[in-house]
Predict the 3D structure of the following.
Amino acid sequence: MHAEICTAIHKRRLLKFSYGSGTRVVEPYAYGVGDGGHELLRAYQVARDDDPRVIGWKLFRVAEIDDVAVLQDSYEAPRLGYMRNDPTMTKIYCEI
């Protein structure tokens, strides 16, 4: 999954994955490790099948992500509110 997430970030492609109770579509911006040692994905959620009103900046625990797919759809970066060197991450694998 590491390679898929970094590929999507570097190519600015949308990611689709299962998380919690539904499927999410996100613009991935940063992937790394947080203070607690958990791998994290900072992304802008553009769609969620179980609640289409929930969009915006999200922080996902990678261990809870399933069925990852890099979509052909791309996005322009950065979106308003994006901050390089995400302060919630102690180590960053890849970022915009």
User: Anything to note?
Assistant: The mean pLDDT is 93.
